[in-house]
Specification:
The chain is an all-alpha fold. The protein has helices at residues 14-25, 50-58, 64-81, 83-105, 112-129, 137-152, 179-188, 194-205, 210-217, 221-240, 257-263, 267-273, 282-287, and strands at 33-35, 47-49.
Length: 293
């Protein structure tokens, strides 16, 4: 860690400080080296400095399997070998984290320091504790930071959400990507209110208890459960109708028969979105894993 003590002048912003630390780790005469000899998947086999590795992993020509293999090894190093490799993992993700910070800070520049700090804290918490054994650990870590940072700006969904590569071969092939992206598109198309989207995200993805949210808001938990259920049924109907496909342009008037049917609680649409027991279909369950509370 002697690399990190070369300068007493550190940026105040969390991500700028992380970038400086990463740069020092990558700087001769003793840069931190990543061993790619066991990675394969087209990457050069050898001892690669971190800055060069980051460039390789950002290259569109690098396949997802190579990125995943590198990230699984980075996570293992960070958990076993301590602070230098924690800094290395953060530095490797900084291009995505900076994009996320820019979108989260839009309209909330006075909260920029808090947003960046929470973004980094969420990423680090996942790096230490999350199950990252599946595909795209880097993507999942960034989204964990995103969800935590949203709370620093009041929990509302930003107007733009970053586009990150999705886990290769992961499920579901539909609904078209990370659940936060689906919720954001549903809000833009007015299938959901921003409040419903945040409620679904907080309880289904962020694992907050709905009773805790109800207590903070001063409402009955049953009211929030019904609000969430209506939102999930609306998303399920939209997914089954193919309305949330990102390849589809958002119409200027943002009105279509499926949304109107959901809004008026047309039985045919709700029945299509729910099973025989009235619960949301697998389309929603896959998008937002059900958790009690």
């Amino acid at each position: 860690m002697s690399h990190l003590n070369r300068s007493s002048s550190w940026p105040a912003a969390a991500l700028a400080a992380a970038e400086k630390a990463f740069t020092l780790l990558s700087t001769p005469p003793a840069p931190l080296i990543f061993d790619t000899r066991t990675i394969g998947h087209g990457l050069p086999a050898g001892m690669v400095p971190l800055d060069q590795l980051r460039t390789l992993l950002l290259d569109p020509a690098t396949c997802d399997a190579a990125r995943d293999a590198c990230w699984h090894l980075l996570v293992e190093h960070a958990r076993r070998w301590g602070p230098a490799w924690v800094v290395a993992a953060v530095g490797m993700a900084l291009p995505a984290l900076r994009r996320m910070a820019g979108q989260l800070c839009a309209g909330h520049t006075q909260l920029a320091d808090d947003i960046e700090a929470e973004l980094l804290a969420g990423f680090l918490d996942g790096l230490r504790h999350a199950d990252l054994s599946g595909p795209a650990p880097y993507v999942r870590l960034c989204w964990k930071g995103w969800r935590q940072a949203r709370q620093a700006r009041g929990g509302d969904i930003p107007a733009e959400i970053p586009e990150l590569p999705e886990p290769a071969g992961g499920t579901p092939a539909r609904p078209y990507g990370h659940p936060d992206l689906i919720l954001n598109r549903a809000v833009k198309l007015k299938y959901l209110s921003g409040e419903q989207a945040e409620l679904i995200s907080a309880t289904r993805l962020g694992y907050e208890l709905i009773d805790d949210i109800a207590a903070r808001q001063g409402v009955q938990a049953s009211v929030l459960r019904m609000r969430r259920r209506r939102g999930e049924l609306a998303v399920a109907a939209a997914l089954q109708a193919g309305r949330l496909d990102p390849a589809r342009p958002i119409p200027r008037n943002r009105r279509d028969p499926a949304r109107a049917a959901v809004a008026s609680r047309t039985p045919g649409v709700v029945d299509a979105a729910a099973g025989a027991d009235g619960r949301p279909t697998a389309a929603v369950v896959r998008c937002a894993p059900v958790r009690s509370g």
